[in-house]
Amino acid sequence: MSAFLASIAADDDALARFLESGEQEMNILEKENHPNIPDSVRDFDVNVNQLNAELSSFGVKASLISPGDGIYAEKAFIVAVDTLTNLMKHHRSAIARAEQFEEKLQRAKQEVLYLSKQNSSMDQNNKRLEAALASAELNGRAAQSAADDVRQKLQREVQELKTQLQPLQQRDKYYTSEMRKKDREMERLQKQLNGVLFDKRRVARPTMHTERDGFQLEQARSVNSNEAERFCQMVSRTYEQRNAELLAENDELREAVHQAQRCLRGEIEKISTVSHSSASEVNSPLQPRACQTPNTPCMELLPMQMVRSAVRASLQRKIEQLALRTAAAEHHVSYASAHSDGSEADAHELRAQLEHYKDLVEAQRQLIHEAVPGMTPSGARNRDESTGFPRVSSHSRRRSATPLCTPDVRATLAAQLDAQLSCSPLPTVPSTDEH
Q1: Collapsed DSSP state (helix, strand, coil) of residue 39
Q2: Which segments within 190-238 are labelled E, that is strand?
Q3: How many domains does the chain divide into?
Q4: Coil, helix or strand at residue 255
Q5: Is residue 150 assigned to a domain?
Q6: Is residue 234 assigned to a domain?
Q7: pLDDT per position as a tens digit, 179-207
């Protein structure tokens, strides 16, 4: 195109000038639109080298080349495209790194905000703790001053107590020494009392040697001074008081035993009266003999061991009689219920009365056993397993010397026996002849 224009302009000078001016204007416009385009090939090589240096500083491995001798424009274009591609990849990676840095920056900002809030809260806590510490220091100083005041007060009280305790300690020492003196005096008087009692026994029961030796007899009589007589009277008075107390307790004991015997005897006689109303029970071999317990004033004059054995034997006989009559009543009730034409309700009522009677006898036996320890009712342990009736044995009574009950137990025994006998009437045992 340029060669064709040049051939046309060769013949026409005006056209040549016009084309030259147009070319200059085109170059000026090209310079204005593309200021980086070099004016010559040398300037283009300089620009390419500058771009390669900048790309290498950015980390792009490809480098631009300028077309020239031995380098085709296509190769330079391909190298430029590769360089541009590497530059785009580098740009994308830079954008990704920038986004990561931005995220890290956001997280760092959030952490900074959180740490600032924590710092402000810690500052507030620190201020509050400082205020609490200041108040605690004030309270501590106040408590320390109060403790010092209390310590001083206690020290003053201790000093006062020490001053008050000194006469008490002196008095205690004095009384301790006096007690020791009294103890030694008491030991001496006890020895003297023992000697006086021994001498009185010797004087009261003189032997053959003392009767013959008048000097020893006179010496023994001379030892019994007024003080020895006073001690002897005190000892005898003490023994007499104790003897009177024992006699009064013995009287209460005998009265309680007599009352219990009377209650038991009344129950046995009541059962005997009911039992003798039927003819079959009169001829029964199980009918025991009514034994009246001797309750005469002569028993008061007997020795204690004999009275105790007689009372125990009497109570045991009464318990055996109660057991025999209970067994006989049970036998007759069972026989009457087996051979009678009565209704089932009557039989049930009789059984209930019989059970109540058994409970009453067992309660009386327990009360007597608690009142008189060591006595076991023979009717409870001498029961035949085949027939169910008690076995009477003459060798079943225990005659061991066991002390009787106390006054409290005696009074309780009498009261409970009277209450149970008054509130629980004995059942009437029907005879076999009525059916």
Answers
A1: coil
A2: none
A3: 1
A4: helix
A5: no
A6: no
A7: 999 889 888 888 888 877 776 655 555 55
